[in-house]
Each structure stands twice: as structure tokens, then as C-alpha cells.
Amino acid sequence: ETFSLSGTTLSLGLVDDGVANSTVDLSSLVGTDDQTALEVTYDNTTSGLTAATVKAAIDELNTNSTDDQTALEVTYDNTTSGLTAATVKAAIDELNTNNTDDQTALEVTYDNTSSGLTAATVKAAIDELN
Length: 130
Prior knowledge:
With 130 residues, this protein is of the alpha+beta class. It contains three helices and three strands, in the order βββααα. The chain has helices at residues 54-64, 88-98, 122-129; strands at 2-6, 9-13, 22-25. Strands 1-2-3 form a three-stranded antiparallel beta sheet, with no helix packed on it.
């Protein structure tokens, strides 16, 4: 059996059967897969979502999003940092005021034990949330 595709021409045949390969012109199919997210089905078996289409899944995730806190609203555990801040914003402000450290987010370790994140650095945590 031989199969080949060149551009939009599919060639099919049997090896050594003495019959020329058959060709199929696929050019009429180019650009026909223009589905929207509403037209693409979504298997919600493992996600826990109720959506049956990709659009509905995106809308459901957007509606159920609870990750809309600001740095001022997120509490900060200062027990090991030596900071006095009680919120993430206050911790950022305190670090900014002290101006004694020039670490990057990649160099700062992140304790993920209570967040559910897998990140081990602040940069990875930010990337994971983004």
C-alpha cells in the first residue's frame, strides 16, 4: 500500500499491483473547518463542569472564577519573613521601603503547602496563577 499527500492531492495505491495510483483532489476541503467554540463539543466527564460545548465551558469557568482578590485582600503570613506586614500589598510595600534586597521572583522560595499551587518559587507561583 502506498499513501502520499502533496499539497491538496492525496495519492493511494497498492505496491506492485500493476495499477496506477488513484488520486483524490482535496482542495475543496481547504478552509472548511471553521467551527466556533459554540460548535465544538466538550467532554465534561472529569472536569466537574456542566458545559457540553467549548464556549459553555469557557463561560462556566469565567462565571465561577473566585480568583479576583487584590494584593490588599490577601493575608500574608509574616512569621518567617521578619516583616510586620499582614497583607501581600503591605509586604510588597514594606519590602519596597526597605530597599535592602535585590532578589528576583525566581530567587525567592514560595511555600505552597496551603495554597494548592505546585510552585516552589514566587515567579513560578505568579506564572501558575497567570
